[in-house]
Amino acid sequence: MVPWGYSVKRIFNTWSQMIIKMHKIQMIKVLVRHSLLAVLLIGALAVFSHAEKVETVSGEVINGYRLLELDPAETTQRFTVYRGDYIKFLYPERFGQQTFSMPELNYSNIIFPQPEKAPFFKMKAVGSYTFKLDTGGGRIEVIDLVRPNYIELTAEEAVELLKNIDPFILDVRTPEEYQQFHVEGTYLVPIQELQGRISELESKKHEDIFVYCATGNRSTVAAKILADQGFKRIYNLRYGVYDWAQQGFPYQTGQ
């Protein structure tokens, strides 16, 4: 016969183990909930971080040019722009004309306080570049355009796209470039006119739009303008219509 005290002890130990197990299970559930919450928070932070990166692009695009507000007396200025942007500077007239240079790109030119008279320069490649002025300077960060409704295509990929869907084709080069050669079925709107003529494309907002230029830079600017205006599906010919023609894909000349 088992002593009564021994039975009580066994019952107590069994209950204790059950309570410990239940406590462990509860702790695991809490940890799982916290882990899931952490994952959700990390995901949310990633989304907001991406949104913040989009919002921190400097200046604004007007008539095809990204205008950056410059302080020629400042030596540690920082700007972020998209690859393909055509850049012009805005700064006070008291600084007069300035020699603007980017050593890594072997680029140098004279800029003026009046942007309509000043030359523009094109950011062709992603990277971080130093710029210098007579009285100041800084850095320009060049990033790729990233949007959920935006896709870059090589010439080969674009040909396959045109075989499978019937997109609206937009050429954002000049009329002179268009007359030299263009993709069949193209609608011409030069990049400097796109914002002012966006109403002409209003009916295409929910359609596939295939946009191109000579080398893929102006078309990237155009894609950004279209995305900001609510166009839903935008395809950009990454290396431009010159690459398209060099690879032997069909094109037309004249009007």
How much is the average pLDDT? 83
| Distance from first to last alpha carbon | 109 Å
List unreliable stretches of 5+ residues: 1-6, 27-55
CATH topology of the largest domain: Oxidized Rhodanese, domain 1
| The top level CATH class name of the largest domain | Alpha Beta
Q: Give me the strand/helix succession.
A: HEEEEEEEEEEHEHEHEHEH
- What fraction, in percent, of the residue positions are helical? 25-40%
- Structural class category: alpha/beta
Number of helices: 6
* Overall 3D shape: globular
Please indicate the percent range of residues in DSSP E strands (runs of 2 or more): 25-35%
- Main sheet characteristics: 5 strands, parallel
Number of domains: 3
CATH superfamily of the largest domain: Rhodanese-like domain
Task: State the CATH architecture of the largest domain.
Answer: 3-Layer(aba) Sandwich
What value does the Rg take, in angstroms?
A: 29 Å
Number of strands: 14
In the sheet with the most strands, the strands line up as 10-14-13-11-12
